[in-house]
């Protein structure tokens, strides 16, 4: 390679570095989160039960988790992100144990931040109206998680196997809840994620990874849909 070619190549490398450095931070985060998934989570995914279902049949996974890990025992089910109550209703039907307790957290005002291009701030809003699911075992805790979860956890006394359903989509909301729930997430507790690897693993998946890192926790993946969008994990 002659001197001129070296200069040319150096210029190309400089150009590429500058393009990368000045690209949007979100793209960098996506790249980092995808690598984090590939390096730290994919191995766990390989051991998980593979379930085949489409979005409308999410209850296939709920049913499987309930049948295998809760069986007929009562559960304490905490759902973060309830909206119109579709997934909460599935769980009420799947687990009819009268001793089970179901808590649903939501502002019912929609996402507090922009999420994907098709789900901006306010998406999934129920205009503040709480769903009427006609089941005495359910209690809704209305408001932003950042305002309701701490006061709730101060008085919550777990009684049964804990099943947590994270369906708030956002990194911030998911991480906030996991960090606050930490002392209740005993080994054997189950957490379901509804949008696990959306936006290049930068929301729910990233929140789980960061929570585990910060709190020195680990998990086993129990079940997943083939595309890793819906997953169920068990805390170790
Ligand atoms: C995808 S929807 C839930 C869908 C529901 N689980 C179902 O299956 O039909 C997400 C919900 O999370 C709620 N949410 C997200 N972040 C929140 C936060 N920080 N505080 C309160 N609610 C939040 C939104 O209001 C929205 O209703």
What features would you describe in this structure?
The protein is α/β, with parallel strands linked by helices and 236 residues long. It has a single domain, classed as Rossmann fold (3-Layer(aba) Sandwich). Helix content is 42%, strand content 18%. It is built from eight helices and eight strands. The chain has helices at 3-21, 25-46, 59-70, 86-94, 145-155, 171-181, 198-201, 204-215; strands spanning 49-51, 75-80, 101-106, 138-142, 161-166, 190-193, 219-225, 231-235. An eight-stranded mixed beta sheet has the order 1-7-8-6-5-2-3-4, with helices on both faces. A hairpin with a 5-residue loop joins strand 7 (219-225) and strand 8 (231-235). Helix 3 (59-70) runs parallel beside helix 4 (86-94) and helix 6 (171-181) runs parallel beside helix 8 (204-215). The protein is elongated.
Annotate the secondary structure layout.
Elements: H1 3-21, H2 25-46, E1 49-51, H3 59-70, E2 75-80, H4 86-94, E3 101-106, E4 138-142, H5 145-155, E5 161-166, H6 171-181, E6 190-193, H7 198-201, H8 204-215, E7 219-225, E8 231-235
Parallel strand pairs: 1-7, 2-3, 2-5, 3-4, 5-6
Antiparallel strand pairs: 6-8, 7-8
Report how far apart the termini are. 56 Å
CATH homology-level superfamily: Vaccinia Virus protein VP39
* Total strands: 8
What's the shape?
Answer: elongated
SS-derived structural category: alpha/beta
